[in-house]
Amino acid sequence: MGIEFQERRRLPRVATAGRPEFRVARRFRVRLLDISSSGALLATEERLPVGAAARMQLLLAGSPFEALVEVRREEPSDDGRGRVSGVSMTSTQPGHQETLDDFLRRAGA
Q1: Which residues contact 67 (CB under 8 A, 6 or more apart)?
Q2: What average pLDDT does this structure show over 89-102?
Q3: How do residues 34-45 score in pLDDT, each as one tens digit?
Q4: How far apart are CA 46 and CA 29, in angstroms?
Q5: Residues 52 and 24 sit within 8 Å (Cβ to Cβ)
Q6: Percentage of the chain with pLDDT > 70?
Q7: Contact (Cβ atoms closer than 8 angstroms) between residue 69 and residue 53
Q8: Residue 23 pLDDT more than 70?
Q9: What is the DSSP letter of 78?
Q10: Partner of 37 at 20 to 30 A CA spacing, among 70, 79, 85, 98?
Q11: Domain positions in the chain
Q12: How confident is residue 26, by pLDDT bands cut at 50, 70 and 90?
């Protein structure tokens, strides 16, 4: 009693060799644990793959901040109920580095 499948393909498919990669953009809700001028530590409920690139957007003292980041490390949180990920910033949006520098200066970092 299988489900009948009606073929709708108009053109033939051809098998290929190699290891293709398929990435789907997905949002993750994270909690910022700490931040520096070059990276941040994030808490999340889901595993973030090491090497993954992402866009991080947040508010720093009410000012928007955006950076491209790469996940450098990922491990279980100390309480075992979530995950922590260390990310490094690979680039920031124009003007956003100044926002981060100002935030860090005010925080005494």
Answers
A1: 55, 56, 89, 90, 91, 92, 93, 96, 100
A2: 92
A3: 999 999 999 999
A4: 9
A5: no
A6: 81
A7: yes
A8: no
A9: T
A10: 79
A11: 35-107
A12: confident
CA separation for the pair 26, 56 (Å, rounded): 12
Q: Token pair of 8, please?
A: 């709708």
Amino acid at 90: T
Q: Distance (Å, rounded) from C-alpha 102 to C-alpha 45?
A: 30
Per the DSSP assignment, residues forming a β-bridge with 43 are 31, 84
Q: How far apart are CA 93 and CA 77, in angstroms?
A: 30
Pairing of strands 53-60, 39-44: unpaired
Residue 8, SS3? coil
Sheet holding 83-92, edge to edge: 30-35, 39-44, 83-92, 63-76, 53-60
Give the alpha-carbon dihedral of 22, 85, 41, 26, to 10 degrees: 30
Q: Report, in angstroms and rounded to the nearest whole number, the Rg of the chain calculated over CA atoms.
A: 20
E-assigned strand segments in 1-109: 30-35, 39-44, 53-60, 63-76, 83-92
Check: CB of residue 88 under 8 Å from CB of residue 39. yes
